[in-house]
Prior knowledge:
Oligomer: single chain
Radius of gyration: 31 Å
Mean pLDDT: 94
Helix content: 25-40%
Number of strands: 23
Amino acid sequence: MTDLVPIRRALLSLSDKSGLETLAAGLVRHDVELYSTGGTAARLRELGHEVRDISDLTGFPEIMDGRVKTLHPKVHGGLLGVRDNPEHRAMMDEHGIAPIDLVVVNLYPFEATVMRGAARDEIIENIDIGGPSMVRSAAKNHAFVAIVTDPGDYGALLAELDGNDGATSLELRKRLAAKAYALTATYDSMISQWFAFADQCERWPATWTLSNKLKMPLRYGENPHQQAALYLPVGPHARGIAQAEQIQGKELSYNNLNDASAALDLVAEFRDGPPTIVIVKHANPCGVASGETLAGAWRDALACDSVSAFGGIVAANRALDGATAEAIAAIFTEVVVAPDADADARAVFAKKKNLRLLLTGELPDPGRGGQSLAVIAGGLLVQDRDKGRTTRDDLKCVTRREPTPQEIADCLFAWTVAKHVKSNAIVYAKDGATAGIGAGQMNRRDSARIAAAKAIEAAQTNGWREPRTVGSAVASDAFFPFADGLLAAAQAGATAVIQPGGSIRDDEVIAAADDAGLAMLFTGMRHFRH
C-alpha cells in the first residue's frame, strides 16, 4: 500500500456541519478542489469558498428530492479505483472518472429523528443511502482514499495535511476506515432494530444486532489478570449506572460498576417511597432500610450487617445531605450512588479522595421494559427485565391466621429486597429494615439459617436484647419446596411469611405454618436472580 497520498480532490456531504468552517479553510489552504452536495455546498459558499456541485462531477442532476445524487459511477469509480492498477487507471481515463482522495461524510440523523417521535414517513426519509455507500467505498479503498465521518477527526486530518505537505498517511487512513465501518454497522443496526421492534413489533427477531460505543477502559475485570471496559448502548436506551456522573474518587473498576448497578436497581424500587438506603456487597444487598431521614435509614441498614458493609456500595433514593454523608464516610466505602448530593455532602466526601461519588439524576423506573443479557459459552441469553412488582391487592393469605397491617408492610418490604438478592434468597425484615439476608445458597433452608445467624451477630454487635428476626416477616424469592426452610425461619422468630407458592408440597408447608402460628402470603410470582 502507498503511505503518503496527496489530497487533491475532496467530496463533502454533511448533515452535521459543525466544524465545517475550520475544515474547509484547512483544505483550501492546501489547494484541495472541493465538491459537495446541496446544503453543504450552500454553506461552503456562504463561507466564501469555491465549491463545485456534485452534478458537475457526475454530469447528472440530483433527482428524486435528493434521494439520488451520489449514487453514480463517477463518484464510486473515483472512490474505488485502485490507483496503482493499470487497468483501473485506463478505465478511469476512458470514462472520464476523476480520483477522489478525501470523503467527509456524516449521515442523516436517523436516531435523533426516532427519538423525537417523528412519524413513520419522516423516519424512513432519514435513512441515509448515498452517505453509507460513499463511506463504505472510501473505507474499502483506504490505501488511496481518506474517509472522515466524525467532526472530532477534523483536527487530526488537518494536522496530517500540514505536516505532510497536503498528504495523509496510511496509518491515519486505516484508523479512519475502521471508524467508518463501525459507523455504518451501528447505523444499520439502529435501523434494523427500529424495523424489528418499533415498526414490525417482532418479539424475537431472527437477527438482532446490538451496537455499543466505548465509554472508557477499566483498570481490570473481576480480577487483575482480566482486562475490561465499559461500553454504552447506541440508540434509544434507558439510563442507568453507566450514565451516572462521577463527581470524585478513584477510577471505577468492573466490580465497582457491577455492584453499583445492583445497588441502583434496588434503591430505584423505593424511588417514590420514604428516605431509603441500600448497602450492597458483591452484587448482593447486605442492608436495606427506610426511615424518616436518610441518616436514620443509613443507621438501620448498616446495623443489619456491618461486617459485610465494610468496603461496600451505598445507594440512596434521594439527594444526600451532610449528616448522612458524615455517617457513610465513617466507615470504608467504595462507591456512593445517589440522585444528587448537596454542598455539605460533597464537602464531606471530598475529604475521602478515593471514595467514588456517582450522581444519577432521576432514578430509573423499576417498571421499565427492556431486556437483560447474559453471555454464555457459544451464545447470548436474552430475557425481559424482571419488572414484576407485587402490591397488597396481589397477596393471597393461605394460613388460618391473617397477617397484621404491619406484617403485611414488612412482607412487602422483604419481598422487594428479595427480588434483588441472588437465589436462593431469604430476607427477614422488620419495621422497614432488613434484619437478616441469606443469599446464593444451594438450598433454601441454608439461606434461612445464614440470614438468621447474621441477625444474631447483628444483635450482639449492637447490644440488642434479641435479634430483629424476632417478630419479623420473611420473604423467599421462590416457593419452599419443603417445610424445613419455613421452620428455620420460624425458629428465628419470624411471624409472617411471603413467598410465591406453587410447590407440589404447598399443603405441607401451609400446615407447618399453621402449626407454628405463622401468617403466610402467596404472591403467585417468583423472583429468581442468578
